[in-house]
Amino acid sequence: MLDQRVNEAIRVLWMSTEYDRSNDIKKMLEEAAAEKDGDACLLLSRCYGGACFIPEKFNFEEDDVKCEEYLDMSIRYGSALGMFAARRLAGYTPPNNTFIHEPYHSNHEIWDAVLSLAKENEPFSQYLIANAYYYGDCIELMDMDEEVLSTPRGIVILNQFMDEAEIWFEACIRQGFRLAIGNYVDLLTSGDYGREINKEKAWEMKIIGADYGYEEYQALVGDYLALKDPEKAKEYLDAALAQGNKEALFGYGMIYGIEGKNPDLVKSNKYFEEGLQANAWSVSCKNRLAQNYFHGGYGIEADPAKAFSYVADLEDSNDWASDIRGICYLHGWGVAPNYEKAKQQLEIYSGDKVNAIGLGEIYAYGLGVPVDIAKGMQYWNKFPDDPKVIEHKKNFKKGLFGWKRISK
């Protein structure tokens, strides 16, 4: 059983949004640590360990030295949780070069102690057990022979680990343990070890995170619902914005964007620009601003040159806007014409409408390549009813000897 102060710290740090209680929690844990409570020392270690352990909004000072000092104390004071969790801190060397300290005499005893807490529905222990299965630390902790993973049964054993990880991740998430959601979603959607991808369950976990009031999941869920259910999306996005999460601005931009149910590109661009001001590296906001300006309408004039300016520097890292870059290179909008780059960009998603129409132009008119009208027609015929395709085809005629261009 954990000290009540430790239980309260776990609840606040990983199961609440009580960010103003940082000093209170730290003082409480320091009092317990002074009484040689090793579990409290572990939590203090995590407080000093940075954002990978504790939500940033608690504003704990990151201090690698204190992080390791408290971890040492946790192990010396006999915390099974400390001995268990310390193995995941990269580069950490435990006291006397061993994770096993009194009152425990083996890895398996440490495992059993933490598993016992998990079975008593203690969420932090459940999270540790889930991660041990997920990352494979369970092999060492259960004194298993790692060589077994190289045998024909290896993949079966790994899948058994993932089955156990699912059970424990879900158990602590349903209690509101936010830190577990990311790894569980990854487990459900990675397809590792031939596992079936379960997007529905992953979505359910994100909804749980949002409904518990965690702003990062409120923003994610709001973004996802922006095009499907804008009114419900606004509830989540407003909640995230109220907590200062600027990522939610992107969701509002999507609600009013080209693909939204009631497009208003003036509003859409406003939100995307605000999102970009909050995070200058927001590729998503740059992509969608480029999309809005490239197509125009719904309150703004099309401005392909401006569209290009948002995604020009993303060429090597972001394929999403390849159609916009390709057409701009093709026509010299915001950049000098470059048929080679245009073709390269448009071929990334050659089946999409803008890309296909652009490739049709390249081959039909011989822009940087030998004229091949038939190949150009193949691309255009993927979207025969598009006004641009209809207009282009007026310049060509098919005779007995193939296609001919009839106008310049």
Structure description:
- By secondary structure, this protein is mainly α.
- A hairpin with a 2-residue loop joins β1 and β2.
- The chain contains 22 helices and two strands.
- Helices cover 59% and strands 2% of the residues.
- Strands 1-2 form a two-stranded antiparallel ribbon.
- The termini are far apart.
Helix coverage percent:
55-70%
Radius of gyration: 28 Å
Structural class from helices and strands? mainly alpha
Q: How many strands appear in the DSSP assignment?
A: 2
Distance between the termini: 84 Å
| Number of distinct helices | 22
Secondary-structure element series: HHHHHHHHHHHHHHHHHHHHHHEE
Ordered list of secondary-structure elements with their pairings:
Layout: H1 4-15, H2 22-34, H3 38-47, H4 64-76, H5 80-85, H6 107-119, H7 123-135, H8 138-141, H9 154-173, H10 180-189, H11 199-211, H12 215-225, H13 230-242, H14 248-255, H15 265-278, H16 283-295, H17 304-311, H18 322-331, H19 339-346, H20 353-365, H21 373-380, H22 387-393, E1 396-399, E2 402-405
Keyphrases for this structure?
408 residues; mainly alpha
Offer a quick outline of the entry:
With 408 residues, this protein is mainly alpha-helical. 59% of the residues lie in helices and 2% in strands.
